Amino acid sequence: MPQVERALRVLDGAILVLCGVGGVQSQSITVDRQMRRYRVPRVVFINKLDRMGANPWRVMQQARDKLKLNAAAVQVGKGTSNSTGASRCGCHVVARKLQLA
């Protein structure tokens, strides 16, 4: 059994880190699929938002489309531009599953 799957079997929860520039990549899709298989609840964190070309809203939409997550922004920083033109902000996305009784 691969190392990631072995670790996922014993986790109570996880943080799925996505790149603010690259978005949802093939490895992210693979890890998310493994998390689903072992029913690991997760929070998605969008990283590298201080880089040029970062777009948290695009990454959130990719999480909805590619990972089929019900994603909503919990915190999005206003951001300030630095000398390179990149904005400084943080964005946390919560993936949740609606359970009806």
**Alpha carbon gyration radius:** 15 Å
H-E order: HEHEHEE
Number of helices: 3
For the largest sheet, list the strands in their spatial order: 1-2-4-3
Task: Please give a structural write-up.
This protein is an alpha+beta fold and 101 residues long. It has 3 helices and 4 strands, in the order αβαβαββ. A 4-stranded mixed beta sheet has the order 1-2-4-3, covered by helices on one side. α2 links the parallel β1 and β2. The longest helix has 12 residues, at 26-37. The mean pLDDT is 78.
Features:
29% helix, 101 residues, 3 helices, Rossmann fold, alpha+beta, elongated
Secondary structure elements and pairings:
Blueprint: H1 3-8, E1 14-19, H2 26-37, E2 42-47, H3 56-66, E3 70-76, E4 91-96
Parallel strand pairs: 1-2
Antiparallel strand pairs: 2-4, 3-4
Short description:
The chain has 101 residues and is of the alpha+beta class.
